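As the work plan foresaw, our protein records have gained a structure token line. A representative record is set out beneath this paragraph:
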Amino acid sequence: MGKKEEAVSVKGEQGLIVSHFGVAVEVLFLGGERRMVRVKRNSGHVVGDRVRVAGEVLERLPRRTELRRRDARGGIHLVAANLDVLGIVVAPGAPSGFLDRAIVAARAAGLLPFIVLNKCDLPEGRSLSAALCGIYGEMLHFFALSAVTGEGLEPLRAFLHEGHRGVFVGTTGVGKSSLLNALCPDINLKVGELSGQTWAGKHTTTVSSLHALPTGGELVDTPGFRDFGLVDISSPELVAHFPGFEALETNACRFGNCRHRQEPGCSVREQVDTGGITSERYQTYLNLLTEVEAMEDDAQRRLWKK
């Protein structure tokens, strides 16, 4: 998933981009110093990038992972770099299909996905928790909690305390901002302090920041992050990463490139027929497969037109 890095080498101090303002980034250096460094707008630098800085010259070091997303209009955005986990926040009333799409995108990007069910204190939250835990509980880390009451927050804090650096994704209304504030109460304070700066260009750009949690671990705050479409996911990647098909590796399909439609010797179809995989889960997979195949076809047509 990584891109080719710049060949120019800069001699200077190493640091980490912890905030991005569009025309400048805040770098946290190894010694603990923080300093603003100007960058070109759309420079490609993101929060989480490891960099080497000499004066006003900034060199990006190779990335371990990248998280990208496709918005509702088809635009592709790089969200953050060098993450290792992706927290997928859901709540009662959230649109269906988002959860599986985000799990596949995380795994394809080399990230460990985990599920956060917010608003578990509501009656519908408890029933949704039982349903989701029945589907995903044995595959992924699953946390049912309430960002408002604090119920269930400690297990999530303990998980992040293991040293994870991650970001939360979720559709509008699931309480992602409330969850961030509950885990890291100084997020609003830090953004407010930085907003007081008067250097040019900052006010036109949403601030993305990396925050160290009081109990350990780090979270990237990306205000305005609403849509999360699949980016550069191939059909084979979907087959490999769709949640619920992992256990079938020991009973592989007859054909290595099986897409689990009507191919002979398909272990997924056999599991659907015998009840090992529910028809609802299988239909969800087919819907995503159709979406990915459509994106592949569109990409191929664009190549033909060149």
Summary: The two ends are 24 Å apart (CA to CA). The CA atoms of residues 155 and 250 lie 32 Å apart.
